[in-house]
């Protein structure tokens, strides 16, 4: 059984790579796995790296766009959803604006 996964704030693909590597076979011999369906990130370099690592044969499935401008209803159906925490406003190397920052409240899209 294949679970189709969508992802917001995908970064370079750490969550997707972990999901892609998992294979579970139950006592009846049924295999369960997760496959990438679509992903989104605002950072172009992160999207390029994600495509390279996760879906080189489907670059169109990675949407380089601000999640606030994304037409979520147009995305294909999925069985699983993951999202990386948009850490820009929380990182110790950033300005530490938290929920007051531009990216801080974006976790609500997940």
Fold and architecture overview:
Strands 1, 2, 3, 4 and 5 form a 5-stranded mixed β-sheet that branches. The protein has a single domain (2-85), classed as Rossmann fold (3-Layer(aba) Sandwich), CATH 3.40.50.150. β2 (23-25) and β3 form a beta hairpin. It starts with a strand and ends in a 27-residue tail after the last strand. The protein has helices at residues 14-21, 44-54; strands spanning 2-8, 23-25, 31-41, 62-64, 80-83. The protein has 110 residues and is of the alpha/beta class.
For the structure shown, list the relevant keywords.
alpha/beta; Rossmann fold; five-stranded mixed β-sheet; 2 helices; 17% helix; elongated
Task: Give a brief outline of the structure.
By secondary structure, the chain is of the alpha/beta class. The protein has two helices and five strands.
Write the topology of this structure.
Blueprint: E1 2-8, H1 14-21, E2 23-25, E3 31-41, H2 44-54, E4 62-64, E5 80-83
Parallel strand pairs: 1-3, 1-5, 3-4
Antiparallel strand pairs: 2-3
In angstroms, what is the radius of gyration? 15 Å
**In whole angstroms, how far apart are the ends?**
25 Å
CATH superfamily, please?
Vaccinia Virus protein VP39
pLDDT < 50 stretches = none
Q: What is the average of the pLDDT values?
A: 91
CATH overall fold name: Rossmann fold
The counted number of beta strands is 5
Task: Please give the largest β-sheet.
Answer: 5 strands, mixed
Counted by DSSP, the helix tally is 2
Name the CATH class: Alpha Beta
The name of the CATH architecture is 3-Layer(aba) Sandwich
Shape label: elongated
Helix fraction bin: 10-25%
Q: What is the ordering of alpha helices and beta strands?
A: EHEEHEE
- Backbone structural class: alpha/beta
Number of domain modules: 1
Residues in β-strands, percent? 25-35%
């Amino acid at each position: 059984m294949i679970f189709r996964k969508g992802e917001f704030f995908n970064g370079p693909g750490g969550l997707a790579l972990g999901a892609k590597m998992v294979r579970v076979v139950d006592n009846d011999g049924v295999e369960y796995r997760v496959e990438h369906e679509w992903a989104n990130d605002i950072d172009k370099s992160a999207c390029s790296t994600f495509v390279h690592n996760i879906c080189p044969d489907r670059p169109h499935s990675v949407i380089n766009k601000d999640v606030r401008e994304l037409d979520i209803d147009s995305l294909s159906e999925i069985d699983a959803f993951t999202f990386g925490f948009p850490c820009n406003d929380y990182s110790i190397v950033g300005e530490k604006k938290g929920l007051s920052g531009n990216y801080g409240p974006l976790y609500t899209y997940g």
